[in-house]
Amino acid sequence: MDWGLKNRLAHIIKPNDNRALMLAVDHGYFLGPTEKLEIPKKTIGPLLKYCDSLMLTRGVQRTSVNPTYPVPIVLRVSGGASIIGQDLSNEQITVSIKDAIRLNASALAMSIFVGAKHEHQTIVNLSKLVNDANEYNLPVLAVTAVGKEIGQKDARYLSLACRIAAEHGAHIVKTYYCDNFERVVDSCPVPIIVAGGKKIPERDALELAYNSIKGGAVGVDMGRNIWQSENPVPMIRAVHNIIHGNANVDEAYELYKKLCQPKPKSPKTKK
């Protein structure tokens, strides 16, 4: 591995503990103005200092992220379908390597749709992206287990999808947590990051983060379970405490509740 590739990966997966807390805000590329992500700049700003990296599109990066803040960018470079379209798996590469370099991306992210109608084109596109990115020492993150309803949380299917992504050159794989998750991790030769998925209760989301780390993932890429929370900053801080502080679920949830409490008012100084 060349120096540049190692350095960029170290921006995402912190070398001191081999852990990663990625904040996912790329939902708009196929969902449009997702609830509580309608104004990306407003959503992202308060959370920046608590995440290790941001996963987003170039449009949101250019318009909604402070360029003077040193947050590593995992740039979504695939798209071409929407939630109201016929098939979400009909994606192509939508961002050039040159534009990713202009945006100072630390890694490139794209989806592969194993088992879906357009499986072939997305897997071939992953290989092409890796070929092009390797020339510039840019890591590639493959997002797996999307576009398939049956077996999406099954270890056998997730092992298949993650291994295929790694075999085609992905440096990191993002997938879902499932029962027997250790089997998925053991059969994938590159680091795995777990997707946060749909909004669930805060304690359940913290349990997901804890189980993911316990099962062998290097971290989580959490979006809706942070910024759709009624208390986004306490939530990301609680997740951070699991990822980098080795907290258990109870400890993280207690921190979350504590941080949600209103700060006591300072006593007025007598004149």
Structural class: alpha/beta
Helix content: 25-40%
CATH class: Alpha Beta
Report Rg.
Answer: 19 Å
Strand order of the largest sheet: 1-2-3-6-7-8-9-10
Number of strands: 10
Q: Can you tell me the CATH topology?
A: TIM Barrel
Distance between the termini: 66 Å
Largest sheet: 8 strands, parallel, barrel
Strand content: 5-15%
Q: Could you explain how this protein is built, in words?
A:
It contains twelve helices and ten strands. With 271 residues, it is of the alpha/beta class. The chain has one domain: TIM Barrel, CATH 3.20.20.70. It has an eight-stranded parallel beta barrel with strand order 1-2-3-6-7-8-9-10, surrounded by six helices. Strands 4-5 form a two-stranded antiparallel ribbon. Helix 7 links the parallel strand 7 and strand 8. Helix 9 packs parallel to helix 11, helix 9 runs antiparallel to helix 12 and helix 11 runs antiparallel to helix 12. The longest helix is centred in the middle third of the chain and has 16 residues. The model has no long low-confidence stretch (mean pLDDT 94).
SSE topology sketch:
Blueprint: H1 3-12, E1 20-24, H2 28-31, H3 40-44, E2 53-56, H4 58-64, E3 73-76, E4 78-79, E5 92-93, H5 97-102, E6 107-111, H6 119-134, E7 140-143, H7 155-167, E8 172-175, H8 181-186, E9 192-195, H9 202-214, E10 219-222, H10 224-227, H11 232-243, H12 249-260
Parallel strand pairs: 1-2, 1-10, 2-3, 3-6, 6-7, 7-8, 8-9, 9-10
Antiparallel strand pairs: 4-5
